[in-house]
Design brief:
Number of helices: 13
Protein name: alanine--glyoxylate transaminase
Mean pLDDT: 97
Shape: globular
Pfam family, one: Aminotran_5
Bound molecules: pyridoxal-5'-phosphate
GO molecular function, one term: L-serine-pyruvate transaminase activity
Number of strands: 15
CATH topology of the largest domain: Aspartate Aminotransferase, domain 2
Radius of gyration: 21 Å
Order of helices and strands: EHHEHEHEHEEEHEEEHHHHEEHEEEHH
Distance between the termini: 39 Å
Family: Belongs to the class-V pyridoxal-phosphate-dependent aminotransferase family.
Structural class: alpha/beta
Cofactor: pyridoxal 5'-phosphate
CATH architecture of the largest domain: 3-Layer(aba) Sandwich
Helix content: 40-55%
Number of domains: 2
CATH class of the largest domain: Alpha Beta
Oligomer: single chain
Length: 390
């Protein structure tokens, strides 16, 4: 029996439903952030993250900083690239626009390579863009949460290494770390940025990152100082290194209770084979996508290889908007998100299937959501005098 108060099931693409053990570990008495006990918790958490990101290279550097996923963009923009330099942003939805806007805030020249909604830039287009102009960094949104489009990070990384070996490969893994395969060393990535509140299964509030030795060297050889104070690696690097070496250190106060929650969540994830975790997310995603198709509905990402396993972006038929369907879901105890892509927001809904809702055999969140979706959809069609497509 869960101790959590009864509540509607949160199946938006983050924040997500949480395990009791994660929530309970947040109810920790206050600790000094430099006490030996807390230093041990933080240090172990950083080391466990190496396993989650699949890196054994000692040059890889984890960072956990109070903030949301967005802070990861500021870290990249203010430490790994300098004013006037070029970045290539691979755009598969809303979050590409935002990463580009963040880079531009720091004076970086961010060029976006855009694909039609639901699709992703092709390898040929990426190659052309990299050969045309030397780029200091290329950014990839692994799963764009606005469209549910999955990028082929492995293939893009191979291409970048071949045609532009000095370009840093930056992966926005906010909606993928913990549910999609990411092999930091094997794919030769330079940065993977994520946040606590999605597939890792923690409350919001932590920006979680892994950087390669190559990325850290790029930072160390900057001509100009980092262009941010709070997001400066110069300020945070010694702190992360000290915590992992179990030495107390201070730049800015870490959120001690949240670090406990992250420690619990990452301990749980890494106590099993990661491959099993990716497989169960993939199977659940297949089940959801099959149920959506059975209702005669389509996804924003049409091609199966473009479809994320973390979430499903469901297109509504003409005549229906998210405002017609979401209240019916809520009435049945299920919360989905509306659309986020600026051009088509009202025309689709988003179903997040990550973390405890997928991995905990004691929960029936996905089954409940699929029943609620069918009922709410049929109810909305009837209310509008429309026919379903099936
Ligand atoms: C792919 C992606 N990148 C970045 C972000 C920004 O993260 P946050 O809202 O935690 O700042 C999000 C948020 O949903 C996201 O889905």
């Amino acid at each position: 029996m869960s101790f959590q108060a009864p509540h509607n099931t949160l199946l938006i693409p983050g924040p997500i439903e949480l395990d009791d053990v994660v929530l309970q570990s947040m109810a920790h008495y206050p600790e000094s952030h430099v006490s030996p006990a807390f230093v041990k918790t933080f240090g172990e958490t950083l080391t466990l993250l190496r396993r989650l990101f699949q890196t054994t290279n000692p040059a890889s550097q984890p960072f956990v900083i109070s903030g949301s996923g967005t802070l990861g963009w500021d870290m990249v923009a203010s430490n790994l690239i300098e004013k006037g330099e070029d970045a290539l942003v691979l755009h598969t939805g809303y979050f590409g626009d935002s990463f580009a806007a963040c880079l531009e805030t720091y004076g970086v020249r961010a060029t976006q390579l855009k694909a039609p909604i639901g699709d992703r830039p092709s390898l040929e287009e990426i190659q052309r863009a990299l050969v045309e102009t030397p780029r200091k960094v290329v950014t990839i949104t692994h799963v764009d949460t606005s469209t549910g489009v999955l990028s082929d990070v492995k293939a893009i990384a191979e291409l970048v290494r071949r045609v532009s070996p000095d370009t840093l490969i930056i992966v926005d893994g906010v909606c993928s770390v913990g549910c999609e395969e990411i092999a930091f060393d094997a794919w030769d990535l330079d940065a993977v940025l994520t946040a606590s509140q999605k597939a890792i299964g923690c409350p919001p509030g932590l920006s979680i990152m892994m950087y390669s030795g190559r990325a850290m060297d790029r930072f160390k050889s900057r001509r100009t100082p980092p262009s941010s104070y709070y997001a400066s690696m110069a300020n945070w690097l010694p702190i992360m290194q000290n915590y992992e070496a179990l030495k107390p250190s201070y730049f800015a106060t870490p959120p001690t209770q949240l670090i406990h929650a992250l420690h619990t969540a990452v301990t749980k994830i890494t106590s099993k084979q990661l491959a099993e975790r990716f497989a169960i997310h993939s199977q659940t995603s297949d089940r959801v996508k099959a149920a959506v198709a059975k209702l005669g509905l389509t996804q924003l990402a049409v091609k199966p290889e473009n479809q994320s396993h973390a979430m499903t972006a469901i297109r509504l038929p003409p005549g229906l908007t998210s405002a017609d369907v979401l209240p019916g879901l809520l009435k049945r105890g299920v919360i989905f998100a509306g659309g986020l892509h600026r051009e088509i927001a009202p025309t689709y809904i988003r179903f997040g299937h990550m973390g405890a809702s997928v991995t905990d055999p004691g929960r029936d969140d996905i089954e409940k959501a699929l029943v609620a979706l069918e009922d709410a959809y049929i109810e909305a069609l009837r209310a509008k005098g429309l026919q379903g497509q099936s």
